[in-house]
Structure formats: structure tokens, C-alpha cells
Write a structure and sequence with these properties.
The chain has one domain. The protein is 66% helix and 0% strand. The chain is built from 8 helices and no strands. Helix 4 packs antiparallel against helix 5.
């Protein structure tokens, strides 16, 4: 899944924390938000097989090569307004959304940072390509249990540009869920 989806799910997780655990001390809320953000990544990311996100940028003549850059620019640039909108919507619990969002993006930050570090040093990974999340250090352990189930029930559409519609549909459902959430609970 793209970062935009992880941020939307982080908003839902932060909302659950704020509603059900609001009486806890802020430090415990902070730890819970970060930890549940990481956990949400581990649960949601393996289902990214059903969405378009090839592990490496397609070459010129490969399927989706012209679609890859605009789609990724759009999805990652949508993260900024989503984060700002959620912080404003959650008012006094905006820090909770930010912490959960950082937790949700933390596995990607660690793994992509590690991957870049390895490439900068000129070393090659154990395999020639980085094709699945199991080849990334943090994802290897975090996503493995859910990935075993997802690999059996979710089709692999990662290289099909039409699968971008799946993620956009998921994002629309999550946005509607967040809007309803913010109207139902007057705590915000």
C-alpha cells in the first residue's frame, strides 16, 4: 500500500485510541499510538499485493512505465494534505495522529533507508533484485504472519497499472470512514 493509505489508517487508529484510551497518561498514549501505527503497517501492507506498486520503477518498455511516476507523485503528495487535515480535524489529539502516522510509516522509512544505504555502499543484496517485502529487513519480520495469508487469498496485481483503481477505492472508503468517525464522536 502507498503511504497515503497508511496515513488514513493511522487516522482511524488514532481515533480509536483517542476515544477508548483518552484517560490514559499522554506518554502511554504516545507509546500506544506509535506501536499501533507500526502494527497497522504490518497488517495492511501485505494486502498491497492487490494494488499497483511495482517494487522498482518499470523500464521504458515495461507495462506501466509511463503511469508509474505520475501515480506515485500523486499518492505521495496527497500524504501532506491528509496529515495536515487529520491534525486539524483531531484538534487537541492532532499529536496522536502525527505519532500514529510516523509509526505507520516507520517500517518503510527503516527499510528504504537500509536499502539506500546498501546501494550507496556499492554492496549487492543477497538476491539480485528487491522484489517483495520479505527481502526488506523490517518488513521481513513485521509482515510475515499476515503475508502468509494474503499470499493465498489476494491476487498479485502489483505490476498492473489498472490495480491503482483498487487502492484509490480503498482510500475513498477510508476517507468516508474518517469523515463519519469525526462526526459521530464529539470528543474531537
Amino acid at each position: 500500500m502507498q503511504g497515503f493509505t497508511h496515513i488514513l489508517i493511522a487516522g482511524i487508529v488514532a481515533g480509536l485510541i483517542a476515544v477508548y484510551w483518552a484517560s490514559l497518561p499522554w506518554l502511554l498514549l504516545l507509546i500506544a499510538a506509535f506501536g499501533l501505527g507500526i502494527l497497522s503497517h504490518g497488517i495492511v501492507d501485505p494486502f498491497g499485493r492487490a494494488t499497483y506498486h511495482p517494487p522498482d520503477r518499470p523500464r521504458e518498455k515495461e507495462r506501466g512505465a509511463r503511469f508509474w511516476l505520475p501515480y506515485h507523485v500523486f499518492m505521495y503528495s496527497a500524504m501532506v494534505p491528509a496529515i495536515i487535515g487529520l491534525i486539524i480535524a483531531f484538534r487537541s489529539y492532532g499529536w496522536l495522529v502525527l505519532t500514529t502516522g510516523i509509526g505507520a510509516m516507520f517500517p518503510d522509512i527503516i527499510d528504504l533507508g537500509y536499502r539506500s544505504y546498501i546501494k550507496l555502499r556499492g554492496k549487492t543484496p543477497k538476491r539480485k533484485t528487491w522484489s517483495t517485502s520479505t527481502e526488506m529487513t523490517f518488513h521481513k519480520y513485521l509482515c510475515w504472519p499476515v503475508e502468509q495469508v494474503a499470499n493465498r487469498i489476494v491476487p498479485d496485481l502489483t505490476h498492473d497499472p489498472r490495480a491503482a483503481a483498487v487502492e484509490i477505492a480503498i482510500d475513498i472508503v477510508l476517507i468516508i470512514q474518517l469523515i463519519l468517525w469525526l462526526h459521530i464522536f464529539p470528543i474531537f
